[in-house]
Amino acid sequence: MEHTHRCTPRWLHLYALAMTALAASAWIGASRPQESRSRFTEIDVERINVVEPDGKLRLVISNRPRSIGPIYKGKPFAYQGGSRPGLIWFNDEGTENGGMTFTGSRGADGRYRASTHMSFDQFDQDQVLNLDYNDDNGRRVTGLSINDRANVNIFDMVKERDSIRKMTDAAARNAALARWAAPRNGVPLAAQRAFFGKDPAKNAAVVLSDPNGKPRLRMVGDSLGAARIEFLDSDDKITNTVGPKA
Fold first, then answer.
1. pTM value?
2. What is the pLDDT of residues 30-53, one digit of tens each?
3. Between the CA atoms of 225, 231, 232 and 238, what dihedral angle is there, to the nearest 10 degrees?
4. Which is it for strands 139-149 and 47-51: parallel, antiparallel or unpaired?
5. Three-state DSSP class for 19?
6. Is the dihedral angle over the CA atoms 175, 180, 183, 188 positive or is it negative?
7. pLDDT band at residue 186 using 50, 70 and 90 as cut-offs
8. 138: left (phi over 0), alpha (psi -120 to 50) or beta
9. With 90 as the cut, is the pLDDT of residue 94 above it?
10. How many whole angstroms separate alpha carbon 68 and alpha carbon 111?
11. Nearest of 196, 200, 202, 195 to residue 226 by alpha carbon
């Protein structure tokens, strides 16, 4: 009994220290911000918005009805959503800078249309690199395109166009739209500079174009298996052809 009496205070002291340490650990853990994470085996969803901590969009995944329209620094412009099922991604400023969309359906007349499109946008502009499959009931184009864009802010450009479209005088409106669509400082608003793919005539082709988008060189493997290189002038006329020797 005497031995037990001497050990009891030390045991209580150690127990108290242990409980104090556990309580402190629990308090520190509770005071730290905890990440909220959920795990699902399967989920059905019509749209997912991936956002930055400040709320800026980074990625939108959606069906057709809930798809997003163009966004510039968080502001919608150009046209409404509801036509682009797929993925649309955004830069650090919350401006759309590319995406991937896909469609495909057959009409009541039995004809079908299908497409897949992946693009990368120039800063504050539209697509400059895109991968496409377009199929109009068997008339198919598949390929990679590289484009030039004028150094014009797309938001300002669309705002100017929409203002012109409100003009009531048809002749003045058409003239203003023609000026709007004209090259800026000699640079077209858009010009395809290179295409690598297959055209509707089933030619495998590499097409290199000048800054105005005019094809100047074509390397073709046609639908019959013959190969040739074509040089063209600015009026799309072939000036020289190089092919296999007879």
1. 0.78
2. 555 556 788 999 999 999 999 999
3. -60
4. unpaired
5. helix
6. negative
7. confident
8. left
9. yes
10. 28
11. 202
